[in-house]
Design brief:
This protein is mainly alpha-helical. It has 17 helices and no strands. Helix 4 crosses helix 11. The longest helix is centred in the N-terminal third of the chain and has 52 residues.
Length: 437
């Protein structure tokens, strides 16, 4: 966490480049055949000659210089956006793991699953991160549009809104007050469910009847209805609105698939780790097999949604829709295509065989690749709209991951020490302990 915080601080300190520094950077890129090419060289030449021939320039030449100056300022803003975006991507990634696990936990209780109760305390430990994690994501988003210079969401910038009729039409929804209030409502609903389900779960350990189990069942069913609505709205607000001119009706499901498979993967990794330390004797290879099946299944589900969203937009070829994918193909080709390999091809090949799903080290290796792939997925959702082609996975990105990974591990493992790792009074406990496939 300390190392990550220092790296994040370094990223913010080095992200503010002067007009001249950016101009020089673009000129260097043009000499090496990268970046903005001839446009950058032309920008430098125009700017350098500006003072000498100011009195002789025509209106057209003035306009050209202004355009180049605007371009340099735009790149300047993109570079300043990078540490904000890196921090936001990492914060959202770890928050969505906790939220995905909470949804999975609620589904297990509402469906009265018999195989999973031995893993409930692991799930409850992971969901402990949801409250701090979600508040941090909301705080970064709001701070970027208040103490920052509209580094993540352009619709928070009054100057942009004043000249953009499309964003003006969405201002009833996309305004910072509504954004913050909705975010707090989402977080309150999720965390209230987590608080009461955890309370009933621990109370059931020593109860002589099943009243706590019944309460947990009822609130889980109600929570899932609340979750499916708020998760979609959260996806629109916290992710999709970085591109306020673009929308997809599949987006809520797409983000859900990513958070769900990431959450299930973390359940597998933490369970394997705890078992290796002698803490989960009641978890056997059949439980691991089932968790790995979910990893396999939801990797396919994520790919189905990714392809459905891409194919429909590509096929209809509507300009305001295809721009989303054109930007990513032009400037993010490696992470965009690589993400599909990491999130689909690799899990399919690794987890298709039933025997491999029972081998702990094999599941761990596959899980790490899946998590990296879904980090890149969130990276691809945020970065093109905020930093354009100024992306790189360097100190700001790695430091942000270290910071939130450290916080996540600290919160989760602290929560795991607060209660027994087996739900002793749960009605399906015995069935779960004796589960075999």
């Amino acid at each position: 966490m300390i190392l990550g915080a220092l790296g994040v601080g370094y990223g913010f300190m080095t992200s503010h480049k002067s007009f001249e520094e950016v101009e020089h950077l673009l000129a260097e890129e043009s000499h090496h055949g990268g970046g903005h090419g001839e446009e950058a060289a032309h920008a430098e030449a125009s700017h350098g000659a500006h003072a000498a021939v100011e009195s002789h320039r025509s209106d057209a030449q003035h306009t050209e210089v202004d355009e180049h100056a605007k371009h340099i300022k735009h790149v300047q803003h993109q570079i300043a956006n990078r540490p904000w975006s890196a921090l936001y991507v990492a914060a959202f990634f770890f928050m969505m793991i906790a939220l995905g696990v909470l949804a999975f936990y609620a589904i297990q209780i509402a469906s009265q699953a018999g195989w999973s109760p031995v893993l409930f305390r692991v799930m409850e430990g992971i969901t402990a991160y949801l409250l701090p994690g979600a508040l941090i994501v909301l705080a970064i988003a709001v701070a970027s549009g208040t103490i920052g210079h509209y580094n993540l969401f352009i619709w928070m910038d009054p100057d942009v809104v004043a000249h953009d009729k499309l964003i003006q039409g969405k201002s009833g929804w996309l305004n910072i007050t509504g954004f913050a209030i909705r975010g707090l409502i989402f977080i309150a609903g999720w965390c209230l469910y987590r608080h009461f389900s955890r309370k009933f779960s621990i109370a059931q350990d020593t109860a002589e009847d099943k009243s706590n189990f019944k309460k947990s069942f009822r609130i889980s069913a109600a929570f899932l209805v609340f979750f499916i609505y708020t998760e979609s709205m959260m996806s629109w607000d916290w992710i999709m609105s970085v591109d306020p001119h673009w929308f997809s009706t599949l987006f809520g499901w797409y983000v859900f698939a990513s958070m769900f498979v990431s959450g299930i993967t973390v359940i597998a990794l933490i369970s394997i780790y705890l078992k290796s330390r002698g803490h989960l004797d009641f978890v056997n290879e059949n439980h691991l097999h089932d968790v790995a099946k979910f990893m396999f299944a939801f990797s396919i589900f994520w790919t189905y949604l990714w392809f459905s969203q891409f194919m429909l937009i590509w096929y209809s070829n509507i300009p305001e829709e295809v721009t989303y994918f054109v930007t990513r193909f032009q400037d993010y080709q490696l992470p965009f295509i690589g993400m599909v390999v990491l999130n689909f091809v690799f899990p399919i090949l690794m987890l298709m065989n039933a025997d491999y799903k029972r081998i702990p080290w094999f599941v761990v290796m596959t899980g790490i690749v899946i998590l990296f792939g879904h980090y890149i997925d969130i990276f691809n959702m945020i970065m093109p709209a905020t930093v354009g082609d100024r992306w790189f996975i360097g100190i700001p990105e790695i430091s942000s991951i270290l910071l939130f990974a450290g916080l996540f591990i600290f919160v989760v493992f602290t929560a795991l020490t607060k209660a027994p790792l087996l739900v002793k009074g749960y009605p399906f406990r015995k069935e779960s302990e004796e589960f075999h496939y």
